Amino acid sequence: MERAELLRYLDSLLEVGRFKDYCPNGLQVEGRGEVRYIVCGVTASQALLDAAVARGADTVLVHHGYFWRGEDGRVTGLRRRRLATLLAHDINLLAYHLPLDAHPEFGNNAQLGRLLGWLPDGRFGEQELGWTGRLAEPVSLARLARSVAAGLGREPLVLGDPQRIVERVGWCTGGAQGYFEQAIAAGVDCFVSGEASEPTTHLARESGVGYLGVGHHASERYGVQALGAHLAASFGLHAEFVEVENPV
């Protein structure tokens, strides 16, 4: 598949033009013009790039790419090594940040809700990135945490009363703890995101709404996997997800 055709398809599918983001979405580093083998991952770390080189991939597709707003733009150190790896091996780097969070089918939030069996019923927050939904049956916050741990393969941070009954849940993957107050206003019994910050504990205690910090990386593994599988099925490309373990 020609790279230009793939980019047109992804930009349209993910509605890139409607998002205000902190980085460029789409092609970030140009490599070969023809795409056959895509390595998918959460973040374009050196470990992921090395895995792509070892597999002979021509394209890397990630959620967290490069060129974030406010970063030092000098090409030195690890940034130089990463770019040198891509350029030396003629590998394309494609990155989709907020568009991949928000997509109703392949997005991180859609995939996390599907994995954990939550039933979506609404959206909230800036650019409608946050999701709300209902559980199949009401459970305690402690039991919900155990279910999330089983689904994601890691223990979440639990803030709030473990015996609090949860019927409605709000969630937004990654570093979305800043959406907690908006989730509370949306009427949820628990909010789930990747990270917590110092004020998160106080907000959970004082509002009575539970909070689960399930891991930034752990919550955002599934969108890029679903997107890669879709591209493989639709266009006959080889797409492989490579897990680079991250405890955060």
Provide a concise account of the structure shown.
This protein is of the alpha/beta class and about 250 residues long.
What does this protein look like?
- The protein has two domains: 3-102 and 220-241, Udp-n-acetylmuramoylalanyl-d-glutamate--2,6- Diaminopimelate Ligase, Chain: A, domain 1; 117-216, Udp-n-acetylmuramoylalanyl-d-glutamate--2,6- Diaminopimelate Ligase, Chain: A, domain 1.
- The protein starts with a helix and ends in a 7-residue tail after the last strand.
- The protein has helices spanning 3-13, 46-55, 77-88, 98-102, 108-116, 141-152, 180-185, 198-207, 216-219, 222-235; strands spanning 26-29, 37-43, 59-64, 92-95, 119-124, 130-140, 157-159, 165-172, 190-193, 210-213, 238-241.
- The strands form two sheets. Strands 5-6-8-9-10-7 form a six-stranded mixed beta sheet.
- It is an alpha/beta fold.
- Helices cover 38% and strands 25% of the residues.
- The protein is elongated and about 55 Å long.
- β2 (37-43), α2 (46-55) and β3 form a beta-alpha-beta unit.
What integer is the average pLDDT? Answer: 98
**What is the 3D shape?**
elongated
State the end-to-end CA separation. Answer: 35 Å
For this structure, the CATH topology of the largest domain is Udp-n-acetylmuramoylalanyl-d-glutamate--2,6- Diaminopimelate Ligase, Chain: A, domain 1
Secondary-structure arrangement, i.e. CATH architecture of the largest domain: 3-Layer(aba) Sandwich
Task: Return the structural class.
Answer: alpha/beta
Q: Pick out the low-confidence regions.
A: none
In quaternary terms, these chains amount to single chain
How many β-strands, per DSSP?
Answer: 11
Radius of gyration of CA atoms, rounded to a whole number: 19 Å
